[in-house]
Amino acid sequence: MSSVLFFLLLLLTITHATTTADGRHDREDRHGCLTDQQAQKILYRWISFFEKIDPAIADKTLTDNFQEYTASINFLFGKDFDAVTADGKSAFIEGQIAATANSTLKVTVLDTIHTCNIIVFRWQSNDKPIPFVGFDWLYLTFQKGKPLIYKAYSEFNNAAALFNAGLFPCPAA
């Protein structure tokens, strides 16, 4: 009985010790682990890049050796589903500039979650007549104390993209 009581007291002490006075968990303050504020900031920089196509935003957000994987885009361009879509920050920026020349994309975040070095979020675009819905899985590393994205998996409803471009019939539309 005394060992059970000791275990419960130890568990209570550990639980209490991992929460700071303002309710945050110590894991948020550990070096190399994203805080909620950092995760939100990097998420909105990522989205802002797609909305503005500003290379300066990508420079503050991505590592030089950034890689993007997206079976949605690879399918549209006839590439293998698991192939690297953009290999390097420069290739990624150039590809986005070429793909979105006259775009006015706006993204609404529907849900998000993060760990120490991963952000996953579900989103919806403002495209017409059918909005794109997708998710992104962002892998982060810390360089000089700042979180940067080094790899991203991004998937979306590419049938909506084809339909909006007039290339894919949609019986429900």
Could you explain the architecture of this structure?
The protein is an alpha+beta fold and 173 residues long. The protein is built from six helices and six strands, in the order αααβαβαββββα. The chain has a six-stranded mixed β-sheet. α2 (36-52) runs antiparallel to α3. The protein is globular and about 50 Å long. Residues 4-29 have low confidence and may be disordered.
Keywords:
173 residues, alpha+beta, six-stranded mixed beta sheet, 6 helices, 6 strands
Percentage of residues in strands = 25-35%
Name the helicity range: 25-40%
Assembly state? single chain
For the termini, the CA-CA separation is 66 Å
How does the helix and strand content classify structurally? Answer: alpha+beta
Mean pLDDT: 82
Helix and strand succession? HHHEHEHEEEEH
Tell me the total number of β-strands.
6
Specify the number of helices: 6
Judging from the principal axes of the Cα atoms, what is the shape? globular
Low-confidence parts, pLDDT < 50 over ≥5 residues?
4-29
In order across it, which strands form the biggest sheet?
Answer: 2-1-6-5-4-3
